[in-house]
Amino acid sequence: MSRSHLPPVARAALSLRAHDKASRVRPGQRAFRWGSPRSGSLREEAAEAPPSAAHNPVHTTAILLIPLFAVSTIAVTCQTDKCETVGATEICTGCKAGGVPVDGFCWPPGSPQAAAAGCTEEDGAALDKTAATCEKCGDGYFLFMGGCYKTESQPGSEICTKASDGVCTACNTNNKYIFQNKATTVTPGSECILCSDATNRNGVMGVENCLKCQAPASSTGAATCDTCKAGFYGSGPCTKCHDDCATCSGAANNQCTSCKAGKYLKTDTNTCVEAGSCNGNTYADPVTRTCKDSAITDCTTCEYNPATGGPKCTACGNSKKVKTAINGATTCVTVASECVDENHFKDDGNTMCVLCSDTSGSDPNKGVAQCKTCTKSGAKPECKTCLEGYIKEGDGATATCGACHQNCAICSEKADKTKCQTCKTGFFLKVSSTPGECFACGDTNNGGIDGCAECDNNTGSLKCTKCKPNRKPAGNTGDLTCTEKTCEDETACGGTSGACDAIVIDANGKEHHYCSYCGEANKFPINGVCVSNANGNTGCTNNVCKSCTQGYFLYMGGCYSTTNAPGNYMCKTAANGVCTVVSENNKYFIVPEASNTDQSVLACGNPLGTLVDTKAYVGVYGCSQCTAPAAPSDGGMTAAICTSCDSGKKPNKDGSGCFACTVSGCSHCNRDDMCEVCSSGKKVSPGRKSCVDGCPSNSTDDNSVCVCNDGYSPDSSGTSCVSSGANRSGLSTGAIAGISVAVVVGLPC
User: Fold this and answer.
1) Which residues contact 545 (CB under 8 A, 6 or more apart)?
2) In degrees, to the nearest 5, what angle opens at C-alpha 398 toward C-alphas 392 and 401?
3) Start and end of every EGF-like domain (predicted)?
4) Cβ(451)–Cβ(485) below 8 Å
5) Is it the case that residue 103 has pLDDT exceeding 60?
6) Number of separate domains in the chain
7) Which of 22, 371, 426, 689 keeps 20 to 30 A from 86, CA to CA?
8) What does DSSP assign to residue 563?
């Protein structure tokens, strides 16, 4: 998904995992990140490819992407009952007081985004700072459910395909999320109706909780619902499913078709149960979220096997026993006839099939630690070869497997790092002939490749085949470069199960990406990396931090110390888990009224914001330095006061937005290259395109802004005031009107 209404270069990211409500994103939810080139600008991560953003002369282009987290970041600034979905996209139709919806996201009324959309009162008057919706939109946008949208990008393109003069002239009905209002007289902004919008709009309405629908046949009445939203069933009205169900076919708890997080669907009863209730030959499959049949013949009891991503049989029927392969896969076999192979032997009583490396039993029926292949013809098994990383020592029943050096796959002597013959994955043999020493693929001090996780040295020229999780791959497959760091944590916070979305800006304005959620069990984001020692932060549980101890403060799902980087980039002093004094670079501001369970510091340029109870605090997009705002009223939204902007832009007078401002001598602009305040005692010219020593004739000095007198308007250069009736011919408009009338009157019928 792309957007065209946002300024370029963002400077920080929000992870809502820091909030108690945080969880994986649900269908229809929208969450955003903002950051620089690593992820672009403010974005919304979407499943579909983003269309190109169109240029708008009032502001510069940027991109919005989507959902990694829920509660969605829209929920921070949106009124609780004003979140709607258009297809798979969540939009806000009513922001907290102090924000207005532009393309479904809440922006301060004085922001460039609101200005570009022409978001105003119904009569065109400027919105006040407590506005929560738009009543009128400008050219290139259309009004829909209290917000302004563009047709060229989502979600606007899902609603409308053609707009003119701030209203939609052709609704997008292709996906059946929207239908055209066929009322005789349509109120501006009600041309398109969302299927779930049950509000009476000129006698026409949708159906509450409906996803897809058919428009009413006449010019009045309600739509006919084809498909209800997830969690509801029916065809109008849409009725809520049982609390256990995510989707359903009826209201009872045995009519579920899918389950909420933490529960699994039993397909034989259509009920949602805990993992432990997936009994018999079924297991709780975390991918399908069902009690899935193991498909292992003769298996009677099984469980999920994370090693294989499939089932693990724990008990068999028909007098068969479990046989476990080296890779962890399980089958049920007849011990006497189906057990023995190079990796297995049977116990003396033909009651178990034992893996060569399985030492859990007792003599003489247990294997040899780290043994790969073996035989048993006597009292004890004899190991023949060892698993990767081990070397066989001794012979016969007394043979054991000794560990090679930790980097070796095959070695000629155990524990000696110089006796490697081949290396484990992620390492390379430095010498041209074996044995030798294995070094990590990313060990640049010994000829490795920076950021490389796996490599190939078979041709004599080391080439990277896989980058570390926290590096961005570039180049050809089999010969990659991995120089761009995407996360400061080497594991990228546990890979795809984790999240590296806590962006911290250092004193030089450079972004660094840190962990906001840890993908590995019993690890927590402390000082931006995932560690098992929470350093006394008892509020860190379930892979995320929700409160911090003395000397630390909460930021985007992690606890940060003020005594070292990256915490000291943001905060100078913290007390009782709350940042009380920001770092001296002023790139962050203190969030008013925050407790130790709230995010107490926020980047000046972070428009996604954070919640303290019902109050939303946001940064100003594109802002590099700021001061903290005053606390808004309950349920309100307030932005930092920007004092300096990125990319050569300048803030407007009230600090609510950053604009391109190339006017010489201008300190504040409130439109791109439209000066609002001049520096050094100069005055804003009538056309706001320059700063002048004094106001020209036919103008008045209004607080150092030159305003043309009645009957006069700025000339094309914006430096002088000319008569509003003057024209290039030198004739007054009245004279021209008289000539026009005379000509018309003189024409034949």
Assistant:
1) 18, 524, 525, 526, 534, 537, 539, 554, 557, 558, 559
2) 25
3) 194-239, 240-273, 355-402, 403-439, 440-483
4) yes
5) yes
6) 3
7) 22
8) S
User: CA dihedral defined by 517, 521, 523, 524, rounded to 10 degrees?
Assistant: 30
Q: What pLDDT digit, counting tens, does each position of 303-359 carry?
A: 999 889 999 999 999 999 999 999 999 999 999 999 999 999 999 888 999 999 999
Residue 506 lies in a domain: no
The answer, yes or no, to whether the previous bond of 58 is cis (omega within 30 of 0) is no
- 346 and 435 both lie in a single domain: no
- Token pair, residue 91, equals 């939009």
pLDDT, tens only, 57-68: 333 323 233 222
Whether the link from the prior residue into 71 is cis, omega within 30° of 0, is yes
Contacts of 649 (CB under 8 A, 6+ apart): 7, 622, 658, 659, 660, 661
Q: Cα–Cα distance between 745 and 749 in angstroms, integer? A: 9
In-domain check, residue 61 = no
pTM: 0.76
What confidence category does residue 31 fall into, taking pLDDT thresholds of 50, 70 and 90? very low
Q: What residues are paired with 285 via a beta bridge?
A: 290
Q: What count of residues does the chain have?
A: 749
pLDDT digits (tens, 9 = 90+) for 542-551: 999 999 999 9
Both 425 and 472 in a single domain? yes
Q: Which two tokens stand for residue 414?
A: 């155990």
Of 485, 506, 532, which residue constitutes the final position of a domain? 485
Spatial contact of 103 and 150, defined as CB atoms under 8 Å apart: yes
Whether residue 415 sits in one domain with residue 324:
no
Q: How far is CA 113 from the centre of its chain?
A: 20
Mean pLDDT of 227-238: 91
Q: How far is CA 107 from CA 61, 110, 120, 455, 511, in A?
A: 16, 8, 13, 47, 23
Mean of the per-residue pLDDT values for the chain? 86
Instruction: Verify that 398 and 418 share a domain, yes or no.
Output: no
Contact criterion met (CB below 8 Å) for 291 and 265: yes
Residue 48 lies in a domain: no
- On the question of pLDDT at 285 being above 90, the answer is yes
Give the pLDDT confidence score for residue 62 in this predicted structure. 30
Clarify whether residues 386 and 437 are in a common domain.
no
**pLDDT > 50? residue 391:** yes
> Would you say residue 315 lies in a domain?
yes
Among 470, 485, 500, give the residue marking a domain's end.
Answer: 485
- The residue range of the domain holding 290 is 248-403
Tokens of 582: 């920001």
pLDDT band at 497 (very low <50, low <70, confident <90, very high): confident
